[in-house]
Amino acid sequence: MLGKNLQELRQAAAGLGLKPFVGAQLAEWMYVKKVRSFGEMTNISKASKALLEERYSLGTEAPSGVADSRDGTRKYLFEVECNGERSAVEAVMIPDDDRKTLCVSSQAGCKMACRFCMTGRQGFHGNLSAADIINQFISIDEASGLTNAVFMGMGEPLDNYGAVSRALEILTAPWGFAWSPKRITLSTIGVVPQLKRFLDETSCHLAVSLHNPFEDERAEMMPAQKAWPIREVLELVRRYDFSGQRRVSFEYTMFAGWNDDKRHADALIRLLRGLECRVNLIRFHRIPDFPYDCASQVAMEAFRDRLNNNGITCTIRASRGEDIFAACGLLAGGHNRG
């Protein structure tokens, strides 16, 4: 049942000989009250619940593990079915004052093969279903208190846009979580055809993984640059209005000696000039068999200040959950834990 929209829930109820309004009841119990079993649905008759349980599973599945960071971040491990095999994915809950943001995964592994990302280095194991994605919101301890979501976990969201768009519908629909799209950010390397659909079909925020303004250098670390050059991505992004509440940001992981100097800052300024946007500088978290370290704090601050002084809002993102392998680039479905 999990992952179905309101129309599909009504059709499922009707297919069992139940009144269509049972579909609306199911949506409320699953997406508003976030129950984890048919038995908790107190306004649905026992006979109706028996029919539902005979034909369907609710689709919720508890995490198989959880890790707690000293900074309050929590990482949840989920077992999912992909291509007939069990795979592991991770979701990260990040508390910040009165906000609780869920960093959600959309794939087991990733096809994009970015050299500095543990998820990309493990290869691709399969797409998550809409139920797998929504389950990450429902089956964690903080389910009732989540305030925001970022599709920045394992996988490239736009490479699994069918399931991701279904999850976004459930998160934002009045019959679903009823979240404002402004509470959701989707991060992408820039899968252009699906990016256009996302920008046309939703009002959620966009974050583009950029990391280097020079296309030849970007291609060294990010093979997807060859399929979807960053200039092509930006040509598309510039067609949309980000001057109001909807935001576009650019993720820029800082590597010592590769993308952290004045030459790169000035090229980034030229690349983004005239676009209402924000640049988030991200500390690189060391991974095995990789030649670069994180840029120094001095270099990151100088880079930030140069962008700000040239009219591009730039901040250094706080690193969260590094001690439990939950920070940017470290998610690997449990493969990075001994």
Explain what this protein looks like in three dimensions.
The structure is a single chain. Helix content is 31%, strand content 20%. The protein contains 11 helices and 12 strands. It has helices at 6-15, 21-32, 46-55, 118-121, 130-138, 161-172, 192-201, 215-221, 230-237, 262-272, 297-309, and strands at residues 65-68, 74-82, 85-96, 99-103, 107-109, 124-127, 148-151, 184-188, 205-209, 248-254, 278-283, 313-316. Helix 5 packs across helix 6 and helix 10 runs parallel beside helix 11 (297-309).
Itemize the secondary structure elements and their pairings.
Layout: H1 6-15, H2 21-32, H3 46-55, E1 65-68, E2 74-82, E3 85-96, E4 99-103, E5 107-109, H4 118-121, E6 124-127, H5 130-138, E7 148-151, H6 161-172, E8 184-188, H7 192-201, E9 205-209, H8 215-221, H9 230-237, E10 248-254, H10 262-272, E11 278-283, H11 297-309, E12 313-316
Parallel strand pairs: 4-7, 7-8, 8-9, 9-10, 10-11, 11-12
Antiparallel strand pairs: 1-2, 2-3, 3-4, 5-6
